[in-house]
Amino acid sequence: MTDVPLVLADGIVRRDASRGQTLLEATTFALDAGDRVAITGPSGSGKSVFLRSLALLDPLDAGRIVWRGAPVERAAIPRYRRNIAYIRQRPALLDGTVEDNLRYPFELHAYRDVRFDRAHAASLAARAGRGGDFLDKRASELSGGEAQITALIRVLQLSPHVLLLDEPTASLDPESSRAIEELVHAWFDAEPRAHASIWVSHDPAQAARMSARHLTMRAGVLDERPRATVHGESRP
Ligand SMILES: Nc1ncnc2c1ncn2[C@@H]1O[C@H](COP(=O)(O)OP(=O)(O)OP(=O)(O)O)[C@@H](O)[C@H]1O
Ligand SMILES: [Mg+2]
């Protein structure tokens, strides 16, 4: 392993294109391999803006993203997005079955070198407590929890290095939330020195469970708390 961060946000800024208002103040942040980060902060403070910027889903107004020491140029963004997956609160699924949804990314140009593996997908579903028939369910008939499990499996089967989890369990029942946490734990533990995650949560207990590093976002300003306070905040 080297000392180079997995992802470096180097002075990144995001503004509202129409009003010119700054959504994310100039932010420099390094995510190292092995990091498990939580971000908390008030609604509207810029947590989603920050995660989407890290994933280069929205254009930056200043600064750059550096992946393993190499700045990500525009033409390399699709390749970069293979490494870093953004999971949002309300997943968007296609019509069709769960399996159709899981097969979908393999139709994209960026994934033409890999094939859908039904056994692998089924094993991920099993880890989330879902039986063999789960892949045959209609996406339109899934519960919110099952839809989020599907969205997470869709990402995990592609073996990303970084997961950006944007309140993935905010509207879910406790059992589905545990399944999501379990899938993320298993993914991290498979390669704990190569993977890294950022989990945005309004739940301090969940933030403590899913991280060892705690950041707060306030009015577009990201702040890191001393690592020691993370333990003081954990709840039983
Ligand atoms: N694409 C966009 N264009 C303009 N303004 C935006 C855009 N995306 C977000 N905003 C604004 O940026 C601010 C931060 O939004 P953001 O979604 O990052 O908040 P958040 O911290 O994720 O809140 P929550 O906890 O409710 O999810 C809000 O005022 C929002 O309206
Ligand atoms: Mg948000």
Account of the 3D structure:
There is one protein chain. With 236 residues, the protein is an alpha/beta fold. It has a domain at 7-94 and 163-233: Rossmann fold, CATH 3.40.50.300. Helix content is 31%, strand content 24%. It contains 8 helices and 10 strands. It has helices at residues 47-54, 77-83, 98-103, 118-127, 144-156, 174-190, 204-209, 228-233, and strands spanning 7-15, 22-31, 36-40, 62-67, 70-71, 84-87, 162-166, 196-200, 213-218, 221-224. The strands form 2 sheets. Strands 6-7-8-3-9-10 form a 6-stranded mixed beta sheet, sandwiched between helices. Strands 2-1-4-5 form a 4-stranded antiparallel beta sheet. β7, α6 (174-190) and β8 form a beta-alpha-beta unit. α5 (144-156) runs parallel beside α6. The protein is globular. The model is unreliable at 228-236 (pLDDT under 50). Residues 16, 23, 41, 43-49, 217 line the site of adenosine-5'-triphosphate. Adenosine-5'-triphosphate (ATP) binds at residues 16, 23, 41, 43-49, 217.
